Each structure stands twice: as C-alpha cells, then as structure tokens.
C-alpha cells in the first residue's frame, strides 16, 4: 500500500524548502518526487508502506526536521482521502475566541470563567458541570449583548471559510458542532458557510439569560454521536469523515473520524490525536486531503 507524507507550514512563514523536502525524502527512504501543493507552504511525498507504519514515520520526520515550523502527517493515499463529511468545533477552532469567556467579560468575570474553561478544555475537570457552573454566572445578562459580541469581538480563524467552501464545492457535507451556544453557532455557521450547526441552548427569562442551559448538554459524547448520526444518514464509510477540534470535549469526535485533527490544541488533545496542526491555518486540513491551493474556493 502507498502512504503520503504531507508537510505544511503557515503561509505567513513558508518553510517547505527544497532542502526540507530532500531531508524528508531521505528520512522516508522514498524515491518518489515531491508534489507541490502551494509554493513553499505545503507539499506531499508518496511513501511505500502500510498504514500501521504511519505513526512511526511521522515521528521520524518530526525528529529529523526538529524546530522547523512545519506540521507533518503520514496518511493512507487511498480512495477515501478526500472526505465527504466534515465536523468542526467552534471555540478556539473555527473562531479565535471562547464565547463563554467573552460573555463573562460583560459581567466582569472573564478571568475567573476563562480559568474554568481552560481546565475543562485540558480535560482536568468534567465538561458538563463546568459548563453549568459558568453559565450560572451569566444570569440576568441581556441576550442582546450576544449580537454585539459577535459583531465586535468574534473573529474567524484564518483559512476557515476557504476550508468549508472548498469541501462543499467538492460535495462534502459540513457541520459546526459546539459545546458552546446556538446563539453564537447560528451566526458563525452562516458566516463561514456550514450546512448545519449543533450546540447548547441557553434558557432565557424574557430578554435576559436565565443562568441555565437546556439538558442534555452537548459535550464529548454528543459530538461523537452527531458524527455517527450524520455518517449514517449520508451512508458514508467511516474513512470518509473528517473532524477537527482543540479541547478535551473534542477527543471522542476526533477519534471517531476517519481523519481526526487536533488544531492548535491543548497538550493532552494534541498527544492523543492521530494528526495535529500547530503551525498552519485551517487550510492545512485541505492539504491533508491532497487539495492544492489552485483548487481552493475563497
């Protein structure tokens, strides 16, 4: 069987030079020539080998290239490389903020809530009780505050729109699935172009937040279940699915996907995921599937 080694850097700091590719070929012991995906930003090299050897080859490349700002993955070069179902986390993945922390800033509790968020995303505390605790602190906050936050503070992660639009243009179904709130995911999904979105629902008392969230909470297992449900509904092979996230509540979804990616993730998540992206933007997920920049839909 043939594998493919993908090397990705950030477009603001291109690092896939001829010297890097020559070293990669040496380490991988392959006679195949590199295929350029985007200038010195991304390239791939075919490698003879079985899927079981991919993790070891990836680590061998990481060791050889050392401190270079390059993301590496060795993957099967098979018929399912381009995925037909994509699920993405929202906070700190498709957007650059944690929405609940921004809400907490409106009541002067951002540092306190952000500390809880960080522990939950690292997997140090259970997600569901941590969410209930943080939401309780938002009681009586005017719901209209959320529109202002979306307009003024929420920024999309670079490459996200291109990622989703390119996948959709090639027939993939896309879903934003978040442990955050529908009051944010609806707007974010529309901005980026997702086909659908799933998240928690904040309860309201008139025009203010009631300080509670509807049960059951969308957490780790709910994200995984959403992937399975969509995969079944669309009649897809597990290998045809892609998922990305950064926190502990994304691990089950990442593990269930045919290609699971930890994106600028917490240490435990990056360690557990089969593929991690630390340097590239979200278009890295396109390069992993063999898309060249010329195929991107902006």
Automatic annotation (TrEMBL):
Catalytic activity: O-phospho-D-serine + H2O = D-serine + phosphate; O-phospho-L-serine + H2O = L-serine + phosphate
Matches recorded under Gene3D superfamilies: HAD superfamily/HAD-like
Active site residues per record: 89, 91
EC number annotated for this UniProt entry: 3.1.3.3
GO biological process: L-serine biosynthetic process
Molecular functions per Gene Ontology: L-phosphoserine phosphatase activity; magnesium ion binding
InterPro entries: HAD-like_SerB, HAD-like_sf, HAD_sf, PSP
Cofactors that this protein relies on: Mg(2+)
Metabolic or biological pathway, per its Swiss-Prot or TrEMBL entry: Amino-acid biosynthesis; L-serine biosynthesis; L-serine from 3-phospho-D-glycerate: step 3/3
GO cellular component, one term: cytoplasm
Keywords assigned by UniProt, alphabetized: Amino-acid biosynthesis, Hydrolase, Magnesium, Metal-binding, Serine biosynthesis
Pfam families per the UniProt record, alphabetical: HAD
Family of this protein: Belongs to the HAD-like hydrolase superfamily. SerB family.
PANTHER family: PHOSPHOSERINE PHOSPHATASE
Name of the featured protein: Phosphoserine phosphatase
Organism whose genome encodes this protein: Methylobacterium radiodurans
Gene: serB
